[in-house]
């Protein structure tokens, strides 16, 4: 085993680029030379075959083989044998329900937290790496047995974080207001708002913001704070209370 290694990406595609194009160098340096094959979990989208084709094409272009878990007759065994796990984006509720339905929550936690294999998530795949999916932007199109997620980090993330547009006439709640409503509930963990083009690299007890756009951190009862790429977020790994699903 080894320390946990996570690459939690806000989004799979950035305007003007292809699938995972904006973070492919981060992916290569994260997976390195040792990993030969990546286990892809396409459960967040309905058309798993098409999703796996897109992911396979990208990872093969980076020099990695890719197996999709939906093609395996035994998903649990696929997790146990995996060298690295990548969970892609889509609908977070659909994704989490499928992880529960296939009895994968415990297995993924064990592989990542005890065996130290690399875990990558983008968007919904980043949401499920956290304590819960309470701060996803997605619609609850299906009903997972719990909103508790993998708990690989002891806080929550809001991918695709959007700043309020002062020129907009839209009167709906801003993302910031929605996160504040979450924090009105007792014992709610920090929420890291990751803008598109940003990712969090976790290595053991060290967490670093990477990418181009920065992040906004929400702590219950405190004013949100703004953070540039390169910020050390390691305190989020120790100060928050871990949650065992």
From TrEMBL:
Subcellular location: Cytoplasm
Predominant location category: cytoplasm
Classification via InterPro entries: Class_I_gatase-like, Peptidase_S51
Function description: Hydrolyzes dipeptides containing N-terminal aspartate residues.
Protein name per its UniProtKB record: dipeptidase E
A GO MF term: serine-type peptidase activity
Gene3D superfamilies: 3.40.50.880
Similarity comment text for this entry: Belongs to the peptidase S51 family.
GO terms of biological process kind: proteolysis
